[in-house]
Specification:
ABC transporter involved in vitamin B12 uptake, BtuC; 14 helices; 329 residues; mainly alpha
Length: 329
């Protein structure tokens, strides 16, 4: 299948998921009502208010975060030559969440500070994981996973410490719900603040995709091409961490998207580096849109979205790996 057909299929599926996200919810919107709202015949009505101020803003935010987490996971996997690396397994999500919690507790939850602290926490978590990996010094791929587990345990310990110090009446419940991942508090201001980070970073990643592909080579091979490999690694880590931090700062920890989306693309399409990058964006966004739609529709009260992504992600990944094993036999 040509890349144009693969992209058409992936973005068609994304369009269906985005449309379902707009229509399904406690206040249901059918296609007729939606068309009336879009054409302006129901301006000022409850349906128009729900669509423009709640449903559309939330769906666009979920779409952007899904793309960001998917590309972040793919960049980490490519940078470290390890298909099991993701923002979750590296401890990046945990580090970013610590930064966000500090902003919530001590800086009156100023959103711009939450984003800045999330990025700083994510970068420190990556650097700490790399440092631990080098100190262990045996198998490179296994080292990174083990160091990510250690970093995750330490960040989790720090999170629990901050929760212990939080005000149980005004802060603890907010932190707990936020850590499980939720888009329920999205508004236009938060969407704007995350979009101005995620969209340029995604654009830069796509723009530099051929140069980033060099990361798949060994360091000696890359240097023979006249490329500053260290600078390229730093660029890749910075882009991936910015994407993770932007998502975590607005939604909390959303698990599995960064690991799952690139694997689904590779298993379904058997693609090259550039194709996997381009296809991971719509696949990650579609998975998160479906998960968020289910999270706010399955029960009377909204579920944290990570409950859906973790459960569905584990089943989907097992299913695709099982199919690949059967195919290889």
């Amino acid at each position: 299948m040509k890349i144009s057909k693969k992209l058409l299929f992936a973005y068609s599926f994304l369009f269906i998921c985005f449309s379902l996200s707009l229509l399904i919810g406690r206040y249901e919107l059918d296609l007729t009502t939606l068309w009336s709202v879009l054409s302006g015949r129901q301006s000022g009505t409850m349906a128009a208010n729900v669509f423009y101020n709640v449903r559309l803003v939330r769906s666009v935010e979920v779409l952007l975060c899904g793309m960001a987490l998917a590309v972040s996971g793919f960049l980490y996997q490519s940078c470290f030559h390890n298909p099991l690396v993701s923002p979750d397994t590296l401890g990046v999500s945990g580090g970013a969440s610590i930064g966000a919690i500090i902003a919530i507790l001590y800086f009156h939850d100023a959103f711009l500070l939450r984003q800045a602290f999330s990025f700083l926490g994510g970068i420190l978590a990556v650097l700490f994981s790399l440092l631990l990996s080098r100190l262990i010094g045996t198998q490179k791929r296994l080292n990174l996973l083990l160091s990510g587990i250690i970093t995750g345990a330490l960040t989790n310990s720090a999170v629990m410490t901050f929760k212990y110090l939080a005000d149980p009446v005004t802060q603890l419940a907010v932190i707990d719900y936020w850590l499980m991942g939720s888009f329920s508090l999205i508004n236009r201001s938060k969407l704007l603040h995350t979009a101005v980070i995620i969209m340029p970073v995604l654009f830069l990643t796509v723009l530099f995709r051929y140069r980033l592909k060099i990361l798949l080579l060994d360091e000696d091979e890359a240097q023979t091409l006249g490329v500053n490999v260290r600078r390229l690694y730093l660029l890749c880590i910075a882009l991936a961490t910015l994407l993770t931090a932007a998502s975590v700062s607005v939604s909390g920890i959303v698990s599995w998207i960064g690991l799952l989306a690139p694997h689904i693309v590779s298993l379904l399409f058997q693609t090259s580096f550039e194709e996997t990058l381009l296809l991971s964006m719509p696949v990650g966004a579609a998975i998160l849109l479906l998960s968020d739609t289910l999270a706010r529709s399955l029960t009377a009260s909204e579920l944290p979205v990570s409950i859906i992504t973790s459960f569905a992600g584990a089943l989907i990944l097992f299913f695709f790996l099982f199919l690949r094993r059967r195919r290889d036999i």
